[in-house]
Design brief:
The protein is of the alpha+beta class. Helices cover 28% and strands 26% of the residues.
Length: 171
């Protein structure tokens, strides 16, 4: 019997340990404390999703997203305290889209981007932004994101690694 397909579902607070485990596998060079992941969810639960697989609903991927100010990126492994006040956010920021190797070939990443585009529109934001790491720029370019080439970003992205690129997409 074929297992049920993987599906994106809204994240719950009970999923934080599972997404921390996924993050440890997918982003070993960019560790973030469980408290940081939990805070991202608490600040914008409607922007957080998990990819569940099988009958037991094992988490094999996740997204953490939220409204954010333009021309800045939230520091890695840092609590934000709060999001920009209503009306001050200019972009819908993808803090993370992480998939375990088990999710490869499922088109789960593309499905997540479509889900997040809908979320950005629902939030009233016409631009999405992210920092591409781990050689993921090609994935994001294929989904309409473009790197913002500016010396301003070189310093801001120093902690994200040599291949980091700030990318945006106008919806």
């Amino acid at each position: 019997m074929t297992p049920p397909p993987a599906r994106w579902e809204p994240m719950t607070a009970a999923d934080v340990d599972a997404i921390a485990a996924v993050a440890d596998v997918v982003h070993p060079a960019f560790p973030e404390d469980r408290a940081v992941l939990a805070e991202r969810f608490a600040l914008c639960p409607e922007g957080c999703f998990v990819l569940r697989q099988g009958r037991d609903g094992a988490v094999i991927g996740y997204t953490l997203t939220h409204p954010w100010a333009a021309d800045s990126v939230p520091p890695l492994n840092t609590l934000l305290g709060r999001l920009p006040p209503e009306g001050a956010a200019r972009v819908y920021y993808i803090h993370d889209l992480a998939l375990l190797p088990a999710a490869r070939g499922m088109q789960a990443g593309a499905a997540a981007v479509r889900l997040l585009e809908a979320r950005a529109r629902a939030a009233g934001l016409a631009t999405m932004a992210l920092v591409a790491v781990n050689n993921s720029g090609g994935f994001w370019r294929a989904r309409g994101f473009a790197p913002v080439d500016s010396p301003h970003w070189q310093q801001k992205l120093a902690s994200y690694g040599a291949d980091a690129a700030y990318m945006t997409k106008v919806l």
